[in-house]
Design brief:
It is built from 19 helices and six strands. It is mostly helical and 481 residues long. It has a two-stranded antiparallel sheet. A two-stranded antiparallel sheet has the order 2-3. A two-stranded antiparallel ribbon has the order 4-5. Strand 2 and strand 3 form a beta hairpin. Helix 3 packs parallel to helix 19, helix 5 packs parallel to helix 7 and helix 12 packs antiparallel against helix 13. The longest helix is centred in the C-terminal third of the chain and has 33 residues. The chain is globular and about 75 Å long. The N terminus is likely disordered.
Length: 481
């Protein structure tokens, strides 16, 4: 079999380059629209946001070209060195960065401010890809799973120490990568369950049905239903026995609630869960299998998580984070406080209608009603000026970019390239979903930028590096002929 090295500029994926250029230019116009003043400041005025973004765009193009010209093996060889350097930078940021809007995440170097968290994404993607590319690596082995998890969690914790919750949560996107490379889907399912349990347990914790907390009662019912499904998946006979037990439990709930309406019904559910745990332990010893221990672990962990919701929410989270979550869940109505940004953003997007008000003709954004409208809430400018049609085009471009990245990642012959490609697609997908959800009120306001649109050099550079390293890996791969 023969190989030849492809020429980078001839073999680089032109579709991704084109979408990148379109998104960056649209982002530049959106920043100008969001920061526009009625004194007709030029887009090229370096004293304005659009002018400075033009500088960042120009340097990003130079950076992209430089990344394409480097030898592709450099990224694999120096992956651990890049990761170590970024970790040191994140640690330094905790102690050296000034406090800006409640967080310490920006290193000030003269007139330039750099956010190391934006560059940590590509470093983690490289080192995770490098780890997967190790000889005889198998993710299902515990030592390998924990080593990869540690590489992801360490920068995540350091960023949390900078009080940048949004940037830290982005690293959850690597769960998609781990799932693609062999991680059990049950872990993703447990993560989904934890989100559902957290929302229900928190939102309905203060709602009582007699002496029973509705939130706690509903979560326990969900745990029972999931447990039943897991048991059926392992053994139909055992699942039928448990189904009979569930019927008895349901009858007991009805009888007790009728004759003793003042009793806390959650107690009966806990008794039922305890009986299920004992039965599963009996099965695990009888059949000498560990399969049932997974279900037991799920029950115990779910109950422990349910009790930890109040502790995490009230004792660990900051007051402004608590309020944002309450507003997002409809537990509080704070139109002048935590809910102000989202309310104004929804008004701006809704006022755009189908075709929008036209470039520079928005009212909500021009009168500066939406805070952070050229950074985290930049999409409201798109919605107001370009309407539903223009917003759909932007989302379609992002979707095309992510799908194209996945296609290219699947075509890679090397594990390193494939894992890195999936990391890029997953990070972009997470940013897009959370940012758009935040702007339209579907997710709490956690403050993460919209890729290639939000104002800022660190953000644009970070996403450019992330994307163009993969383009180099894809273009520089050896082709069989």
């Amino acid at each position: 079999m023969s190989y030849r090295k492809t020429n980078t500029l001839n073999s680089v994926d032109r579709w991704i380059i084109l979408i990148y250029l379109v998104l960056v230019i649209l982002g530049w116009f959106s920043i100008y629209g969001a920061s526009y003043e009625y004194d007709n400041t030029s887009m090229f005025d370096l004293s304005g946001r659009a002018g400075m973004q033009m500088v960042w765009i120009g340097t990003s193009f130079i950076l992209a070209f430089f990344l394409l010209m480097l030898d592709r093996d450099i990224y694999s060889i120096f992956a651990y060195f890049i990761y170590a350097f970024i970790i040191l930078l994140l640690i330094a940021t905790i102690f050296l960065a000034p406090e800006i809007k409640g967080s310490r995440s920006w290193l000030v170097l003269g007139p330039i401010r750099i956010q190391p968290a934006e560059f940590a994404k590509f470093a983690v993607a490289l080192v995770v890809a490098k780890r997967f590319n190790s000889y005889n690596f198998k993710l299902l082995e515990l030592k390998n799973f924990f080593s990869v998890s540690a590489l992801i969690i360490i920068p995540m914790l350091l960023i949390l120490m900078q009080k940048e919750t949004g940037s830290a949560l982005v690293y959850l996107a690597f769960l998609i990568v781990l799932y693609r490379e062999g991680m059990s889907g049950s872990i993703l399912f447990c993560g989904f369950c934890s989100i559902v349990f957290f929302i229900i347990g928190l939102k309905y914790s203060s709602v009582n049905w007699g002496e029973t907390s509705v939130g706690e009662f509903v979560v326990l019912i969900l745990i029972l239903l999931v447990t039943l499904g897991m048991s059926y998946g392992k053994d139909i006979k055992s699942g039928r026995i448990m189904l009979f037990g569930y019927a008895v439990l349901f009858i007991a709930l009805c009888v007790v609630s009728y004759f003793y309406p003042s009793i806390d019904l959650s107690i009966i559910l806990y008794i039922g869960l305890g009986a299920i745990v004992c039965y599963l332990l009996f099965l695990s010893f009888k059949k000498w299998t560990k399969n049932y221990l997974i279900t037991i672990t799920f029950i115990v962990a779910s109950v422990a998580f349910l009790y930890s919701v109040d502790v995490v929410f009230n004792d660990i989270m900051e007051p402004h984070q608590q309020m944002r979550i309450k507003v997002a869940l409809g537990m509080e109505n704070d139109p002048e406080g935590a809910g102000y940004n989202v309310n104004q953003s929804k008004i701006a997007i809704g006022s755009g209608g189908f075709l929008g008000k036209g470039f520079l003709n928005g009212t909500q954004t021009k009168l500066k009603y939406v805070p952070e409208q050229d950074t985290d809430f930049i999409f409201c400018t798109v919605g107001e000026e370009q309407g539903f049609f223009g917003s759909s085009i932007v989302l379609l471009l992002f979707a095309t970019l992510i799908i194209r990245l996945i296609i290219l990642a699947e075509r890679q012959h090397e594990i390193f390239n494939r894992v890195y490609g999936y990391s890029v697609a997953s990070i972009l997908f997470f940013h897009l979903m959370i940012n758009i959800g935040m702007v339209i009120g579907l997710t709490p306001v956690i403050g993460i930028p919209l890729p290639f649109f939000s104002y800022g050099g660190s953000s644009l550079w970070g996403f450019t590096i992330l994307l163009f390293i993969f383009l180099k890996l894809d273009a520089g791969k050896k082709e069989r002929y």
